[in-house]
Design brief:
Elements lengths: L7 E3 L5 E3 L3 H18 L18 H29 L4 E2 L1 H22 L17 H22 L2
Antiparallel strand pairs: 1-2, 2-3
Helix pairs in contact: 1-2, 2-3, 3-4
Length: 156
């Protein structure tokens, strides 16, 4: 991606520098609101974020969802809010970067579900004239950026 330039790196102070070109920030700015809307719905693409704990036992599953479902959604929405609040930041704390990681992962999982992605699929397999080529590109970009965040968190 773009010469494989590092987008996220740990600084000597222990926080993280975010080096995103304006066009990437513009793309990322639109995503938190979309994720928030999805998290507030019953969209089937959310199943990857909230897999059933008791798929064979509807009563236990309903009880599980009642006990932890709200907390799980609030945690995810909290990550979305942090990413949205810090999207223009040049530096973020480790806690904020962990929220970014969570939000990026959620976005990628949902998009992958909507695109019916499989592990066998590769970017080179998608024809340039595919009507969803920009969605596939976003999927791969989010994965690449997520990798950048993980690498930065593991450094130093």
């Amino acid at each position: 991606m773009k010469g494989f330039q590092i987008r996220v790196r740990r600084t000597r102070r222990g926080d993280f520098e975010i080096k995103l070109p304006p066009e990437e920030r513009a793309i990322l700015k639109a995503l938190p609101n979309q994720l928030r809307e999805l998290l507030s719905s019953d969209d089937p693409s959310l199943e990857r974020l909230f897999p059933p704990a008791y798929p064979e036992e509807p009563d236990l599953q309903a009880e599980y969802e009642q006990l932890v479902g709200g907390d799980l959604r609030r945690q995810r929405l909290g990550s979305v809010e942090v990413m949205e609040r810090t999207i223009e930041a040049k530096r973020v704390s480790e806690e904020e970067l962990l929220a970014w990681l969570s939000a990026l992962n959620d976005m990628r999982l949902i998009l992958g579900t909507k695109l019916d992605m499989t592990e066998e699929m590769d970017a080179e397999d998608i024809p340039d004239d595919d009507p969803l080529v920009s969605s596939y590109a976003l999927y791969y970009y989010l994965g690449w950026l997520e990798e950048q965040v993980v690498d930065a968190l593991q450094s130093g």
